Amino acid sequence: MRDHLIIEDGRVASVIRAGRALVSGIVEFVDELGVESTQVVVLCQPSTRDIAETTATAFAGSGRRATGFTLPDGEEAKQMGVVEDVYRHLNTQRFTRRDLIVAIGGGALTDTAGFVAGTYLRGVDVVYVPTTLLGAVDAAIGGKTGVNVDGKNLAGVFRHPRAVAIDIDVLDGLPPDLIREGSAEAIKTGMIADPAIVEAYEADRLGVDLDDVVNRSVAVKVAVVNDDFTEDGRRAILNYGHTVGHAIETSTGRSHGASVAIGMHAAAAASAQVLDFGELDRQEAVLRGIGLETTAPDAHAPAIRSLMALDKKRDASGLRMVLLRDIGQPEVHTVDDATVRAALTAIGVD
Ligand SMILES: NC(=O)c1ccc[n+]([C@@H]2O[C@H](COP(=O)([O-])OP(=O)(O)OC[C@H]3O[C@@H](n4cnc5c(N)ncnc54)[C@H](O)[C@@H]3O)[C@@H](O)[C@H]2O)c1
After folding, report:
1. How far apart are the CA of 198 and the centre of ligand 1, in A?
2. What is the residue with the minimal CA distance to atom 35 of ligand 1?
3. The last residue of a domain, from among 152, 174, 196
4. In angstroms, what is the span from residue 105 Cα to ligand 1's centroid?
5. Is the Cβ–Cβ distance between 222 and 18 less than 8 Å?
């Protein structure tokens, strides 16, 4: 078990604990942090209702009033209408600023719960229990919350949860598809900052030691976020693979992890052209080794280019991509058309 600390203005804003049996020990964890709530509202998604019920029972056993509220699954949760439904449940429960929300689920659930916590009564405490690998290594870490309004994550606030409890026992029980999905982000983290993560996937593929991979990934994200909370500078390195990845996700409907893997291959090809990056094949083997695609020949090239151009319009300096000089050496570059072409050719889009 390991704690990772998010520091804001010299104070601990959030404690992220990753280890085993944390769901069964959630009351003790919250007590240890001194979160003094008289009431707990447990938010979950359909797939995490069992864990939520156990958790609510544990809080009730500690003398707190505890209720549960199930949000719709996946992106269906990330809507203003659902946010309002949760506000209404909190109203009905006479929820106060001394009470606590516990959010149990994947990234869609924690993103929505975080938005509720950041806005209800102008901000109440929330503890996340991420139950997907993507949630554990990415969505639950770093204080970004968001719901979708026409575009993805267009409404949101920056707000850290009081704590994050990542129970490796829960992650060990995930189906291979969800392990693969989160592994794309874990490998990305390895490529930008921790070669040991890449080596772990080379050795054990989808059978990697999740305790080790999660703790390493969280350590990197926490260090980056502590350096640059609101993404003015260094936090951008976390977007390695995401410029092309987002365009693939939007235009082909692939999942986020699958799209990021393809985006990483494109970014690695651009890195080879601009910075002589020599690990393109190695990265591709690692991604393919766990069943992720690195090309998207079905993608419509003009659609990908115009989605990337949209990104460019949002940044006056041109299209910016995170490139690698070597594993662990990310750099943000404004790239020219020839580089974009090389990146798209590498993923079969031309
Ligand atoms: N805030 C951030 O910084 C950030 C970063 C990355 C991604 N995100 C967001 O995270 C979301 C994607 O995360 P996700 O893939 O975890 O999404 P998700 O919450 O939709 O979970 C994916 C699926 O897994 C199911 N699930 C959850 N826990 C399970 C378990 N223990 N066993 C079996 N099934 C389980 C869910 O019900 C859902 O169907 C997106 O909305 C994305 O925008 C946010």
Report:
1. 23
2. 47
3. 174
4. 7
5. no
**pLDDT single digits (tens) 323-336:** 999 999 999 999 99
Do 291 and 154 fall within a single domain? Answer: no
> What residue ranges line ligand 1, CB within 6 angstroms?
45, 47-48, 73-75, 78, 105-109, 111, 131-132, 134-135, 138-139, 142, 144, 153, 170, 174, 178, 181, 256
- The per-residue pLDDT for range 176-222, each reduced to its tens digit, is 999 999 999 999 999 999 999 999 999 999 999 999 999 999 999 99
Co-location of 111 and 223 in the same domain: no
CA distance 247 to 334: 17
Cα 96 to Cα 101: distance, rounded to the nearest angstrom: 11
Strand 125-130 and strand 163-167: the pairing is parallel
Q: Which of 158, 174, 190 is the last residue of a domain?
A: 174
- Residue 166 sits in the same domain as residue 201: no
Nearest CA to ligand 1 atom 21: 106
Confidence of residue 11 (pLDDT cuts 50, 70, 90): very high
CA angle 238, 168, 239 (to 5 degrees): 5
Q: Is 41 left (phi over 0), alpha (psi -120 to 50) or beta?
A: beta
The span from the CA of 203 to the CA of 286, in Å, is: 9
Question: Is the same domain home to 157 and 207?
Answer: no
The pLDDT value recorded for residue 234 is: 86
CA–centroid distance, 107 to ligand 1, in Å, is: 4
Closest-CA residue, ligand 1 atom 30, reads 131
Cα of 244 to ligand 1 centre, how many Å? 21
The 10s digit of each residue's pLDDT in 135-186 is 999 999 999 999 999 888 999 999 999 999 999 999 999 999 999 999 999 9
C-alpha to C-alpha distance for 127 and 161, rounded to whole angstroms? 5
One-character DSSP codes across 160-207: --SEEEEEHHHHHTS-HHHHHHHHHHHHHHHHHH-HHHHHHHHHHGGG
Cβ(227)–Cβ(235) below 8 Å: yes
What is the pLDDT confidence band of residue 258, given thresholds at 50, 70 and 90? very high
